[in-house]
Amino acid sequence: MKKIVLIAVALVALVSLSVLVYGIEARQAADVVSIRVSDALPVTDPHSQLWSKATEFQLPMGSQTIIAPVKPAPSVPYIQVRSLNNGTHIAFLITWADSTKNDRTVKIDEFRDGSAVLLGPVGEMAVLAMGTATIPVNVLHWKADWQADIDTGFQGVESAFPNFWVDMYPNVIGEPPYTLPGNFSDAAKLYLPGWKVGNSFSQPLKVTSVEENRARGFGSLATEQSQGAIGRGIWENGQWSVVIARQLHPSDNEDIQLISGEKYSTAFAIWDGASGDVGARKSITALLTLYVQ
Ligand code: HEM
């Protein structure tokens, strides 16, 4: 009897040790670890104390040199990334140095600052290039101009051209100057087709500064039908601090479902508006492993 108890105790010790080792190994093998907390995640607060519970990972940046328009050298040498999850949602805090705040894209030579998180299955190199036809990836893209639309109101043409004036607009309520979205009835929206058809870029009333996308290889990035990502970015003292968050298990089955205790592929991208970054012209990390604690 005593012998059986001893064997049982040894077995339990062995199992918990291997779980511990696996946990530590998985954490050690991962480039980014999303720390499990029981709190509500600070999805719109880059300065929350809760972020001190997350390990900071300093990630070197390279640049996209595979397809035109290429970026010869990264805008920033490093970014800092922290991640928290609470069993229902995952959040990333990305910080990087940027001496200028570029948060308007009205004029043709204006480009936004931005950052993105890519999520894909573990162990697939092709994931870095935004997935493949058979390996879809999720891309959560925070945009500084969407943030400005939320923080200070929609930045229309008049924000870049103060003398801009419209004498009349079909079906608009009231007198000029017209503002978006205030004066625009449904009928008037016909003359702002992007807004009318639901193009997320043309929405004057932004509810989130993070766009949820899916891609099956570069050139195929598309806005997801259901938008559930959230976040917030703050620029101060020459640095962006941006939170990007989404559900661990989005309702769309084609999305990457993040299971606690598992590993995934991830990568990060940064756009520097002052350098004219947009689309493919960006700084990117290498393909990384994310461990969701
Ligand atoms: C070698 C790697 C990569 C290549 C060759 C590449 C290429 C491209 C190309 C050609 C575009 C424009 C066409 C399109 O919208 O699909 C694009 C846009 C985009 N890519 Fe990538 N990409 C790479 C890695 C990444 C990574 C790692 C991320 C995210 C972490 C990312 C996120 C995005 C986003 C959000 C856009 C839209 C940007 C915008 O609207 O300005 N890409 N990429």
Main features:
single chain, 293 residues, Immunoglobulin-like, 2 domains, 14-stranded mixed beta sheet, 4 helices, 14 strands, 15% helix, elongated, binds protoporphyrin IX containing FE
Question: What topology emerges from the helices and strands here?
Answer:
Elements (H helix, E strand, L loop, with lengths): L1 H28 L2 E5 L20 E4 L1 E2 L14 E8 L3 E9 L16 E7 L16 E7 H9 L4 H4 L32 H4 L13 E6 L6 E2 L6 E7 L2 E9 L15 E9 L11 E2 L3 E5 L1
Parallel strand pairs: 1-4, 1-14
Antiparallel strand pairs: 2-4, 3-13, 4-5, 5-11, 6-7, 6-12, 7-8, 8-9, 10-11, 12-13, 12-14
This protein binds protoporphyrin IX containing FE.
Q: By helix and strand content, what is the structural category?
A: alpha+beta
- Mean pLDDT, to the nearest integer, reads 91
In the CATH scheme, the class of the largest domain would be: Mainly Beta
The largest sheet, given as strand count, sense and whether it forms a barrel, is:
14 strands, mixed
Share of helix, binned: 10-25%
> Radius of gyration from the CA trace?
22 Å
